[in-house]
Amino acid sequence: MDFLVVGLGNIGSEYASTRHNMGFMILDAWAQASNAIFTVERYGAVAEVSFKGRHFTLLKPSTYMNLSGNAVRYWMQRLELPLENLLVISDDINLPFGTLRMRKRGSSGGHNGLEHITAMLETDAYARIRVGIGNGFSRGGQIDYVLGNLDEEERQQVPQLAERMVAGIKTWAILGPERAMNQINTQPQTPSEPAKTAES
Fold it and tell me: What are the pLDDT tens digits along the chain (200 aa)?
């Protein structure tokens, strides 16, 4: 079975470590752990990863965030995939940093990349995982915040976030979205408290 996993971000070295590029960072970590290499193709950089009979095409769109739907629509058509085999990874300022939230469908939540994908696919019925980046900015400072670089503490958390997310995506592909949501939406347990599920 084939799946398309899209990580949202902006191309260019000046955006590589920014909060808005969390989708790119997750796919980069997955590819590195799988010894996969991204190659530049139409509408984006693509890597191929397989796991237990499932084949994943990892896509980092080269369209810039606001036109991400062009890349997603093209690759969905090229791979001839049903909508249920698409998953999109995006950042979210409405969630605390490091919180993961998977849904089978939903609104864009004001995220320009998701909004354009929904417009191009003419539906919001596709799986997505939102990665919390927090909202530590003052009024009017949202753009500078999301296009600002992760701080050192945040950068150190990215590999663990990627590991949790990739495990959840594999569950999604093998056991379905309900099991994957139960896995991804549960926050990691600390020594002093039981595991808990993230609130909306």
Answer: 999 999 999 999 999 999 999 999 999 999 999 999 999 999 999 999 999 999 999 999 999 899 999 999 999 999 999 999 999 999 998 899 999 999 999 888 888 999 999 999 999 999 999 999 988 777 777 888 888 899 899 999 999 999 999 999 999 999 999 999 999 997 654 434 444 444 43
Q: Domains of the chain by range and CATH?
A: 2-197 (3.40.50.1470)
By DSSP bridging, strand 2-7 and strand 54-61 are: parallel
**Of these residues, 20, 55, 111, 116, which one is catalytic?**
20
Q: Alpha helix locations (H) across the chain?
A: 22-33, 68-79, 112-121, 142-146, 152-175, 177-184
Q: 5 φ, ψ to 5°?
A: -115, 120
- Measured CA to CA, the distance from residue 107 to residue 183 in angstroms comes to 22
* Cα 199 versus chain centre, distance: 19
Is 20 assigned a catalytic role? Answer: yes
List all residues 6 or more positions away from 200 whose beta carbon is below 8 Å from its beta carbon: 101
Q: In whole angstroms, what is the distance from residue 118 CA to residue 111 CA?
A: 11
DSSP letter at 188? P
Give the pair of three-digit tokens for residue 33: 């752990």
